[in-house]
Design brief:
By secondary structure, the chain is an alpha/beta fold. It has 15 helices and 13 strands. It has a seven-stranded parallel beta sheet, sandwiched between helices. A six-stranded parallel beta sheet has the order 10-9-8-11-12-13, with helices on both faces.
Length: about 375
């Protein structure tokens, strides 16, 4: 089996590529990142093909968030299309092409013309479900929302139709496709793994504190607005709330204007993964209350650091934990339910400690990225045999 992979960024595609390469199956991987950003991906340089001229240039602009939405939308569209053309024109001889959704349509069609099977890898819910959830959330907060670019929605739905199979990482994402009328036999569940060598317990939480952690880009989509409300409901003499990941001053300002932003919240911004395991290990719980999140790899990363998790049902939580064992699963948009689960961990340190130990055991039992690679190979083999 020879496989080509494409991804505009990095995401989980390079973890997949490493597993394929370890099994002698990787023919090449395409990325919109510049070459110097891909040097530490533990893959032979000849297998990595970079096309950074549009997407890479966009990512490098520090002031892009201040540009009008129309310009940003057009630039992102141009990045998707130019990268899609590049992959299509350079698709190698292979048995299977795996394209991350949004930029795989042209190469998928080219693959089929050449007798190559095409799998669309979608890391989130069905794009129409994602768009609807985001629209509802913005409406509920009285915010304008231009929506996901209709050209992107049309292109992704065409990818779903063109593909021999669509892989998704969570039960939530799988269900969203079924709700949109996609046949079950066109879908495959392929949950992501975690690097248990990179993420592991390196310290322990302070027994006299209660430290809550959020990891990810701050946004309405990630449910930050409900986390800050829940945080203010819980009582502990030494509690803290820390945000790691891309900050959003616009969201912080919105929450401040509504009296919801905690004055003691810590916003650390981007943190190298080498440091992230220390933060996760000393946190009492990681919370991911997303409105829409295809999986949420930070959940498994925290669990690998013996940190229990609380996540909404619109993540990969149902594929990672059993509610009440390694953490809790809560409804979306429910700050009260989130606060109730947090307070349980505050009031019962023994429960938190037990959940942390069970979380660590569950992650190791799942097998990390190696197990993910084995499942992927099995799925791909069935596609090639069908």
């Amino acid at each position: 089996m020879k496989v080509a992979v494409s991804t505009l960024g990095k995401y989980h595609a390079f973890d997949l590529a490493r597993e394929l390469h370890a099994r002698g199956a990787l023919e090449s991987i395409f990325s919109g990142y510049p070459s110097f950003k891909l040097r530490n991906e533990q893959l032979p340089e000849p297998l990595i093909h970079s096309f950074p001229w549009v997407h890479g240039a966009y990512m490098a602009l520090p002031w892009k968030n201040k540009w009008p939405d129309l310009i940003i939308r057009q630039w992102k569209y141009a990045a998707d299309i130019t990268f899609s053309h590049y992959v299509s024109h350079h698709l190698p001889d292979c048995d299977l092409y795996i394209g991350m959704s949004g930029t795989a349509l042209l190469a998928g069609k080219k693959a089929h013309k050449r007798g190559i099977r095409f799998i669309c890898d979608r890391g989130s819910a069905h794009i129409r479900v994602q768009n609807q959830l985001l629209r509802e959330e913005h409406d509920s907060w009285g915010l304008d929302f231009s929506g996901i670019d209709e050209r992107t929605i049309d292109r992704e739905e065409a990818e779903y139709a063109e593909a021999d199979l669509v892989t998704v990482p969570s039960t939530f994402a799988f269900s969203s496709f079924v709700e949109q009328g996609v046949q079950v036999d066109k879908l495959a569940l392929l949950p992501y793994g975690v690097n248990v060598e990179r993420f592991q317990p390196v310290t322990a939480p302070d027994e006299n504190r209660f430290d809550i952690l959020f990891v990810g880009a701050m946004s309405l989509q990630k449910g930050v607005q409900y986390l800050v409300q829940a945080y203010q409901k819980i009582t502990h003499p030494a509690k803290s709330l820390t945000f790691v990941g891309s900050p959003s001053q616009a969201l912080i300002t919105l929450l401040q204007q509504r009296g919801l932003w905690p004055s003691d919240a810590k916003v650390l911004g981007h943190v190298p993964q080498a440091e992230l395991k220390h933060i996760m290990s000393r946190s009492h719980v990681l919370v991911l209350p997303s409105i829409q999140d295809g999986f949420g790899m930070v959940l498994a990363q925290a669990m690998a650091c013996a940190c229990p998790v609380i996540a909404s049902r619109h993540t990969g939580a149902e594929d990672l934990i059993s509610d009440g064992c390694e953490g809790y699963i809560v409804p979306v948009r429910d700050a009260s339910a989130l606060a109730e689960r947090l307070q349980k961990l505050v009031d019962c340190p023994e429960l938190r400690s037990s959940m942390g130990a069970q979380a660590l055991g569950r992650v190791h039992k799942m097998g990390g990225w190696n197990t993910y690679g084995e499942k992927a190979m099995a799925i791909y083999g069935k596609v090639l045999q069908s």
